[in-house]
Amino acid sequence: MQTVFHLIAAEPDQQRTALTIAENLTKDDSVDMDDVAVVAQADGIEPLTAGGEGSETVESMLKRGISFKACSNTLDLKDLSESDLVDGVETVSSGGGELTRLQDDGYAYIRP
Amino acid sequence: MQTVFHLIAAEPDQQRTALTIAENLTKDDSVDMDDVAVVAQADGIEPLTAGGEGSETVESMLKRGISFKACSNTLDLKDLSESDLVDGVETVSSGGGELTRLQDDGYAYIRP
Amino acid sequence: MQTVFHLIAAEPDQQRTALTIAENLTKDDSVDMDDVAVVAQADGIEPLTAGGEGSETVESMLKRGISFKACSNTLDLKDLSESDLVDGVETVSSGGGELTRLQDDGYAYIRP
């Protein structure tokens, strides 16, 4: 199975919870996961920025095979470039576009 | 592809972000969208009311072909009638019912 | 049709709204529902705990045939056991796992 998490909450607490839930999914032996992805946009981009609050968690999740996708519109709006992101984070044309594409491909959607 | 956005947040900032993400999806040339709809309920109904905060954005999005659906239960609860809504906004029997129906029809779901 | 609601918000007001939307779906004659389930995790677990705020609503919804599933990781984190939950509430290995499984089975997902 495949699941995409939508990281958009502004509060660090809520971002932390979202990342924990995504990570816990990869540790749940009762579901056979082929892919777990996180699409981040708006203020939810913070943990994906190098040195940002929560970025160590993103780094360790990337090592566990979870993919992270940052919305390009958000980067533009916040005056960030790809070089400001944690190594390994991808960029996507738009958060809404990627969330649509992945669900169309059969991904479950979870918005913590 | 088809996507339904769930507009339910109470904060004007969050409502604005939700509408922007929906509008950005229609501008993303990398996804071939057949329909983008917004189902609003609870305090998320505000931008769909005539003269409400954010209603100009809803008006311009309607002109771009994005459809807006207001939950009838919410209208009852807030003592609003169809005539209080922005011209062109539809009403649906229940927000949950419409979100279920659209996903059953293959729509992706995004809750900003 | 089948729908799973994701109960994760911390605010009692938002939890109340989420439960009302789930209950309203079962009263909407325009959609033919086979199942309505609620997966609760993080602070959204509160109404599923015996005597917790909102627990009377959960009790009455259980009687109407709506199923409630509590995330085991959340129980561990909050030092709760199954005996602390409202009678009839099930536990699931992880909230993310159950939400993935149900969507994979064709459930619509709604996150109020």
List the uncertain runs of chain A.
Answer: none
Shape assignment of chain A: globular
Rounded to the nearest angstrom, the distance between the terminal CA atoms of chain A is: 18 Å
Q: Tally of extended strands of chain A? A: 5
> What's the alpha carbon Rg of chain A, rounded to whole Å?
13 Å
* H/E element order of chain A: EHEHEHEHE
Which secondary-structure class do the elements of chain A indicate?
alpha/beta
Q: Characterize the main sheet of chain A.
A: 5 strands, parallel
Spatially, the strands of the biggest sheet of chain A line up as 4-3-2-1-5
Query: How large is the count of helical segments of chain A?
Result: 4
Summary of the model, kept short:
Chain A is α/β, with parallel strands linked by helices. The first copy, chain A, contains 4 helices and 5 strands.
Description:
- The structure is a homotrimer of 112-residue chains.
- Chain A is α/β, with parallel strands linked by helices.
- Chain A has helices at 12-27, 55-63, 72-77, 95-104; strands at residues 2-7, 35-40, 67-71, 90-92, 108-110.
- In chain A, strands 4-3-2-1-5 form a five-stranded parallel β-sheet, sandwiched between helices.
- Chain A starts with a strand and ends with a strand.
- The A-C interface holds A 1, 3, 5, 17, 21-22, 24-25, 27-31, 33, 108-112 and C 6, 8, 41-42, 73, 93-97, 99-101, 103-104, 109, 111.
